[in-house]
TrEMBL record:
Any Pfam family hit: zf-C2H2_4
Species this protein is from: Musca domestica
UniProt domain C2H2-type: residue ranges: 49-77, 86-113, 114-141, 142-169, 170-197, 198-224
Main location: nucleus
Protein name: C2H2-type domain-containing protein
Amino acid sequence: MPDEEKMSCPLCDHKTSRPSVLKVHMESKHGKQSVEEFFREEPTDSKPFVCNVCGRSFGRRYDMNRHIQIIHTHPKTPRQKREKCYLCPHCGQSYNSKKGLENHLISHTDDRPYVCGICNKAYKRVREMKVHQRIHSDLKPFQCSICGKSFRRRDKLKTHMSVHSDLRPYKCRQCEKSFKCRSVLRTHMYVHTGQMPFECKTCCETFPLNSLLTDHYLKSGHVK
């Protein structure tokens, strides 16, 4: 949904397409009173019944109950799309199922119960540990269909595929440059933000780009 069609928080720049998510955001960031004041809705003679999930009003209680049953309870059908009604109390992210919410809530904890048996590195999810364990083996199941190069992780293969394409979908909002990879754009942004994360280990001079640091090493003769 375009930003101009989304609901805006009256107290900050947060935007969302769902009133229920906006309520969670406002209560967690600005306090419960802000929700009560912003969402206070006076009953009208024509539509006195208000859905407590999304805020939609109805003229009959029957219509409101049917709306809740179809939209917020029943699974998706070709003609009906269920709204995401399982909300994270920490960040306001919404999910279609309780299981999806429970999986998301793991990201808000410090628990890391899945431990690599080789290096003892711990992870929050078992799939993350299994991906990590590939570094301890020669297994590279994700192969490029063009050049045959293999990778341990699917996301690394996806990044590699940009080498075989002329597309540059990641555009800088500050200038006209565009890039094949998001990571390269992220590094490029240091030029505009003034950050200097790349430091010469010999003289401690800093640079916004790793390529500039490499040039510095070549010209100065400093050792990496």
